[in-house]
Amino acid sequence: MSRVVRYLTHPQVRIDPQIDIPRWPLNEVGRARVAALAASGALGGTTRIISSDETKAMETAEPLAKALGCDMQIDAAMHENDRSATGFLPPDEFEQVADAFFAAPEVSVRGWETAAQAQTRIVRAFETALSSHGAGDLLLVGHGGVGTLLYCHLADLPISREHDQGPGGGGCYFAFDAERRIPERGWLPMERLYGAG
Question: pTM of the full predicted structure?
Fold first, then answer.
C-alpha cells in the first residue's frame, strides 16, 4: 500500500519584534485554520507527525496529532532557515533579503544561513524521517523557506523563489508518494485537503 508524505507549513503567526522569531506563536487566524483542518478528518491516514521545534510549527502539529491520535515527534533540524544574524526585519526589507537568499543559494545574505546549507539540512531531516517511518501516511510540519528548498530538491528543480508557497501567511502543503518521492503538484492551501479554499 502506498504511503503519502505531506509537508505542511504553519499558518499565520503573531509577529512580535520583541520575541525571538522561532518562538512566535500562531495568531487567531492561524489557530482557526489548524483547528478546521484537525476537525475535518482529511489527514485520517496519517500515523506519524514530525514537527520543527519552532513554536509556530509545534502549535500547528500538536492539534493535528491530538485529533488523529497519532505520534508526534520534534526534529530541531527542520527549523526555518537561520536568520538570527538579522533577527526581525520589517516586511519590505525581509522580502528583499529573502529574494536574495533564493537568488544566490551559495551566498550568505547578511549573515543568514545559505539556501544551499538549509537545503542540505532539510533534505537530510526528510531522509531520516522517511527511513524510520513505517505504515501509514507521514506529515512533516515546518516552514515556507526550507519547505520550498525541499520541494525544489524533490522536484529536481534549481533553487528558486519561483517555487515558494507564495503570499498569504503560510498554511500550505505539497504531497508525494513515499516511494516515488516526486511532488504531485506545487503548493496548495491546507483547506484544499478537505475541499475548501
Answer: 0.96
9 with 147: CB under 8 angstroms?
Answer: yes
d(CA 197, CA 193): 9
Q: Which of 153, 162, 150 is nearest to 173 (CA)?
A: 150
Query: Cα 59 to chain center, whole Å?
Result: 13
Report d(CA 34, CA 49) in Å as an integer: 14
State how far Cα 169 lies from the chain centre: 12
DSSP alpha helix (H) spans, the chain: 28-40, 55-68, 91-103, 115-131, 144-154
Domain count for the chain? 1
Pairing state between β 4-9 and 172-177: antiparallel
Backbone angles phi, psi at 70, to 5 degrees: -115, 170
pLDDT tens, per residue, the chain with 197 residues: 679 999 999 999 999 999 999 999 999 999 999 999 999 999 999 999 999 999 999 999 999 999 999 989 999 999 999 999 999 999 999 999 999 999 999 999 999 999 999 999 999 999 999 998 988 999 999 999 999 999 999 999 999 999 999 777 899 999 999 999 999 999 999 999 998 76
How far, in Å, are 11, 163, 190 from residue 131 at the CA level? 27, 26, 25
- Domain span at 41: 4-194
CB atoms within 10 A of CB 192: 13
Residue 30 sits in a domain whose CATH number is 3.40.50.1240
